[in-house]
Amino acid sequence: MLKLSWAVCLGALSLLPSVVYAAGCAGLSGSASGNDPFWMNNSGLTSLSKSVYKSGYKVFRNVKTDYGAVGNGVAGMYDTAAINRAISDGGRCGQGCVSSTITPAIIFFPPGKYRVTAPIIPFYYTTLVGDYNNKPMLVADANFNGIAVIDADPYIPGQVNPDGSGVNWWTNQNNFFRSIRNFVIDVTAMPPDAYGTGIHWQVGQATSLNNIDFKMSSASGTRHQGIFMENGSGGFMSDLTFNGGAFGMWLSNQQFTIRNVKITNAVSAIYQLWNWGFTWQNIQISNCQVGFDLSTGGLTLATQSAGGVLIIDSKISSTGIGIRMTSSQPKTLGGSIVLDNVAFSNIKTANIQDASGTSHCRAPGFSGSGGGDDGVACYPGAPPSPPHDATGEP
Ligand SMILES: *[C@@H]1O[C@H](CO)[C@@H](O)[C@H](O)[C@H]1NC(C)=O
Ligand SMILES: *[C@@H]1O[C@H](CO)[C@@H](O)[C@H](O)[C@H]1NC(C)=O
């Protein structure tokens, strides 16, 4: 049995700048084996986590033992308030604060079912961590009211910029130092025609989402979505699953690297209104109407808004259209999509379809009938042999 020493604890917490985080895990000793509780489920961490900038400031906060969240699936308003208190406690960087690196917080969620009635708002420099061994569930109440179960950049109601756009708590490209890991987020109790959304993730760099399962309605006409991200300058995501919804991931941002994602039963698995450059690896899409939905903007280089997409070691299966795009621009990389080791199987209409309805990328086994296949083969020569598996290994 693998034994990990508490040095792991020191190592992980030292992700925070050492000048801010002065305690380490000095009071803990011992080792853990595979069946032991997740190491963060230890209320002793709270008293150990101190800031050298603010006396009494706690970096580590346990939503149950420190703030009284119940996590029994029913205490909705109470749990929402307790979680938001765990986040905001100690004079942190919330609305009106441009940015701060001296008030970080790790908010730990022990296992449980936390019913949420209004958005959980992670302040600047917040990490939300669930118990890795038994992921806590954040369950949107049927009457949930707000943009998303977790809202990383709230809009200020009633305020607009001169150009008519919304005003956020933080500037989207400057919304740094955030992560969320080890959760199940379930919006299926909300009516399918409500915009039930898991995470509003309008963030900049040093941000990540890891190991999160999103559950949405797959009723016809569903408006649910896993992640909604309209702009920003990210970022990294990995090990995410999405089931149901109008959109698994609705992602517009300058750039992101995203790997190990499984999306099933969504209308559009991935939708992009705009981007500069996205890298995707090991994306598994099945039983959706559209896989990558990049069909946005105009048809000229100047007006086309989504493009610059690299997809590696991925598979799209049992789906209507694999990739829907605007058009590639002659002689530029505008609107370019690079596919490296991407398998299409049981695609109904087109592996890749452009705005004119023409389908491209006639892969071996393509049996689509839509849109006048232009005969461009995905594999100009023989298909790679042996093909890589989903992890990229031959
Ligand atoms: C987490 O810690 C609490 C005490 O703080 C304990 O009651 C609970 O059983 C622990 N749960 C797990 C899953 O380790
Ligand atoms: C980000 O997108 C939202 C929604 O489209 C918009 O209101 C806001 O103005 C955008 N922000 C910037 C800086 O472009």
UniProtKB/TrEMBL annotation:
One of its GO terms (molecular function) is hydrolase activity. Pfam families: Pect-lyase_RHGA_epim (PF12708). Residues 1-22 form the signal peptide. Keywords: Hydrolase, Signal. The keyword Signal applies. InterPro entries: Pectin_lyas_fold (IPR012334), Pectin_lyase_fold/virulence (IPR011050), RHGA/B-epi-like_pectate_lyase (IPR024535). Residues 372-394 are annotated as: Disordered. Residues 60-293 form the Rhamnogalacturonase A/B/Epimerase-like pectate lyase domain. This is Glycoside hydrolase family 55 protein. It comes from Mycena indigotica.
